[in-house]
Amino acid sequence: MSNPVVAERYALALYQVGKEQNLSGQIDEELKTIKKVLVQNPGFIGLLKTPKLSVDDKRNLIRQSFPNVSPAVINTFMLLADRHREDIMVEVAESYINLLNEERGIAEATVYSVRALTADETKAISVVFAPKVGKQTLNIENVVDPNLLGGVKVRIGNRIFDGSLRGKLDRLGRKLTS
């Protein structure tokens, strides 16, 4: 079974536990933080995958690394360690976040702009682009990219809305050469 499918199954189980215990929002925040930590420190997963570490050592390492995390999340990650699936921890977190976002009508978006966006600009982008992808709102991550020259480029899932000056110039150049 491929890793994304396995990660989705673990995420779904964690999602159901979160719903039963009314901890969905708390688990969401914890997983976002854990995902960020794991992405910034890829050596942690490598350490967990070390064959010299016993399963008990892995469990203790997980428990010590994330001491303030809810039991449902810790138990899920310890279960992953028990089954030698440490490498899908980030995917489990992403899958859980996606499940909760789907329920809430939220989509994750990356907005590339020449400068950092203000809160009002971020809200305006969310209002305009959320209905285009059938969602109520967007969680926006702003990436500053000076190569755009002006405007913004919005990426939501696998869809890209390019309203940047660089994109317009590129399209104009292709049109003129064809």
TrEMBL record:
Keywords: ATP synthesis, Cell membrane, CF(1), Hydrogen ion transport, Hydrolase, Ion transport, Membrane, Transport. It comes from the Bacteria. GO terms for molecular function: hydrolase activity; proton-transporting ATP synthase activity, rotational mechanism. PROSITE patterns: ATPASE_DELTA. It is found in: Cell membrane; Membrane. The keyword Iron does not apply. It is a peripheral membrane protein. It holds the Pfam family OSCP. GO terms for cellular component: plasma membrane; proton-transporting ATP synthase complex. SUPFAM superfamilies: N-terminal domain of the delta subunit of the F1F0-ATP synthase. F(1)F(0) ATP synthase produces ATP from ADP in the presence of a proton or sodium gradient. F-type ATPases consist of two structural domains, F(1) containing the extramembraneous catalytic core and F(0) containing the membrane proton channel, linked together by a central stalk and a peripheral stalk. During catalysis, ATP synthesis in the catalytic domain of F(1) is coupled via a rotary mechanism of the central stalk subunits to proton translocation. This protein is part of the stalk that links CF(0) to CF(1). It either transmits conformational changes from CF(0) to CF(1) or is implicated in proton conduction. NCBIfam families: ATP_synt_delta (TIGR01145), PRK05758.2-4 (NF004403). Belongs to the ATPase delta chain family. This is ATP synthase subunit delta.
